[in-house]
Amino acid sequence: MKRRTFFSLSTMGTAGFLFAESRLKTTKYDQRGDIKVIATWNVPNAVDAALEQLNQSASALDAVESGCRVEESDTSNSSVGKGGLPDREGKVTLDACIMDASGNAGSVVFLEDIEHPISVARRVMEDSPHVILAGDGAQQFALEQGFEKTNLLTESSKAAWKKWLETANYKPIINIENHDTIGMLAIDNQGNISGGCTTSGLAYKKRGRVGDSPIIGSGLFIDNEVGGATATGMGEEILKSVGSFLIVELMRQGKHPQQACEEAVRRIAKKGGERIKDFQAGFVALRKDGETGGFAIHPGFNYTIGDEKGRTLLTSSSLF
Ligand code: ASP
Fold this sequence. Notes:
Helix content is 37%, strand content 22%. By secondary structure, the protein is an alpha+beta fold. The protein has one domain (31-318): Glutamine Phosphoribosylpyrophosphate, subunit 1, domain 1, CATH 3.60.20.30.
């Protein structure tokens, strides 16, 4: 008997073990062949890029990387990649993470001057023995991997920062932009699920601040037996509830992705008390059978879904 099996039997008893096994079987939501993408916010180009990959039989991992890269290069999106609003010192710092269907993960935090943190995160996952690289070390790794330095601060982001400096009044604002952190989940034609999450974080944050987006379990979590979830909104609050992991675990226990997202938002709201009127947090989830969910604290959150039939923008329901 393998050591691990022995522990299972001894801690749960034989009946418990058999129950756990049969429960696992009934919660395998495997329906091969139905590709699907879900992403936070109104990101048609990113979802189309991911769908294009999936339609050519690419992996879900390739699809989410391609989708996230589109937003990272879109300078009209001021909260992801190039064109992202800077910290208080006028520096754009990027966070991203990625997870594949085998449960591997890679992440970069506080990365400067590199346009595609999602791809650096993938290299961390695939070409380093680590899961997270930060700051100068992450940049050094990116340069060693062949990424090039780019100025991420666009003229319009610089102008917005200069204007902000006039009062330097830092307040978290609900739905800072109609684009925000992009979190993307995809299922490929093999039935495998992967996810990515990329952001420039909160505008005018303190230098060195890192939110939920690059933290496995908070900004993103994937379990290929169950599904995935990803977050957007006030990272400080999402971190404290490990919301994406929670959603995947709730789906494992049988909750529909919509119910699971609602429960994760409720937990954040409960901890947030009075403060929740001042911040937004939202999640999207994708179960292995293609069922989806999305929910936020406040109105204003939307998300994009794509599959073989096309692409749709959905308005999220919310707690308030
Ligand atoms: N979750 C991101 C962060 O806290 C920001 C956002 O989604 O608006 O860095």
